[in-house]
Design a protein that fits this description.
The protein is an alpha/beta fold. The protein is 29% helix and 18% strand. It is globular and about 50 Å long.
């Protein structure tokens, strides 16, 4: 049996340019839209070499319907006595201060955290983030997909409570340490990205406040059930054509998804719809963009994307693009 060299300690000195500490974070939320809220958060603080210093966990009263209870398991009753985000913002900030935020699909966790701090009229003390999906790709880990459970299994980490913030953060912390050591050993530059805090915030009306369990979620399309039939309302914008790398997405673009995603596929598609994109169930010459974490999988969509020359991005890049979708052209 071959030794898994990704767990071996670096032979040379530790890279001086690497961060001095990390905050491995997981947040569970009421959904993926701009007005969704955090319902629980966990942080594992690690030192420069990825060793655990301490951990912290809290539930959070989102002041609204908790959303997909079947995923995170937190009902309105369970959250009714929890602190508001403003009540835990300072302690959360202490856990993040002067560290690189590490998360699985980090753009999502950072976006949710930044919005919560903006609502509380504060700024999260985070300047850089590291996505473990991106790091896995940099290391060339032989993973069949980029789900957290798959990364955990690769390093022999046992997941006990999937979608529980504390356990997900623990699992990620345990998987991140050997990844970090592999990167240090091979001289890999860590895929660090800048965290830009929000400075302004304006809440839209949202779903009913917490206290009574509701099966409805407020979106830009009005009130709709969390898990309706997957027939979506028609996209109100014309297709502006293909996505051009280096430019923002534009409302009306047709986006197709293929393969496994770290975020639940239905919720990821809902987020695309919220941004004004058209979610396509198949790929054609009219498709603007294909989102896949495995462009070489050989699925019908990836094969057609190569045939038609359709642009392809991974899930983490798509999450970044969703933060700044250009409005549809007028006229």
């Amino acid at each position: 049996m071959l030794e898994d060299l990704t767990t071996a300690a670096p032979a040379g000195p530790w890279p001086a340019a690497y961060p001095k500490g990390y905050a491995v974070v997981d947040v569970e939320t009421t959904g993926l839209a701009r007005d969704d809220r955090i319902v629980s958060a966990a942080v594992y603080r690690l030192n420069a070499r990825g060793e655990v210093e301490d951990h912290w966990y809290t539930t959070v009263n989102p002041e609204r319907d908790p959303g997909p209870v079947w995923i995170h398991g937190l009902t309105s009753d369970a959250l009714s006595g929890s602190p508001l985000f403003g009540d835990i913002a300072e302690e959360f900030a202490d856990r993040l201060a002067d560290r690189v935020l590490v998360a699985h699909n980090a753009v999502f966790d950072w976006s949710m955290i930044a919005r919560e701090y903006a609502r509380a009229e504060r700024t999260a003390p985070v300047r850089q983030r590291l996505c473990t999906i991106a790091l896995s790709k940099e290391l060339g880990l032989p993973l069949p997909n980029y789900k957290l459970e798959t990364l955990a299994a690769h390093f022999g980490v046992v997941q006990q409570r999937a979608h529980h913030a504390l356990d997900d953060a623990r699992v990620l912390a345990e998987a991140f340490r050997p990844s970090l050591h592999a990167a240090a050993r091979d001289g890999v530059r860590l895929p660090l990205l800048e965290c830009r805090p929000l400075t302004e915030w304006s809440d839209r009306p949202v779903a009913p406040r917490i206290g009574r369990q509701s099966s409805y979620h407020q979106s830009s399309y009005g009130v709709s059930s969390w898990r309706p039939s997957r027939k979506r309302p028609p996209c109100p914008y014309p297709n502006p054509g293909r996505y051009e790398p280096g430019k923002p997405l534009k409302q009306g673009m047709r986006v197709a998804f293929s393969g496994d995603t770290s975020v639940e596929r239905d919720l990821l598609e809902d987020r695309a719809v919220e941004a004004g994109l058209h979610v396509a169930t198949s790929l054609s010459r009219l498709t603007s963009l294909l989102v896949t974490n495995d462009p070489d999988s050989g699925t019908s969509k990836t094969a057609k994307a190569k045939q038609f020359g359709t642009p392809v991005v991974d899930e983490a890049a798509f999450g970044q693009l969703l933060q700044d979708v250009a409005p549809a052209s007028e006229g």
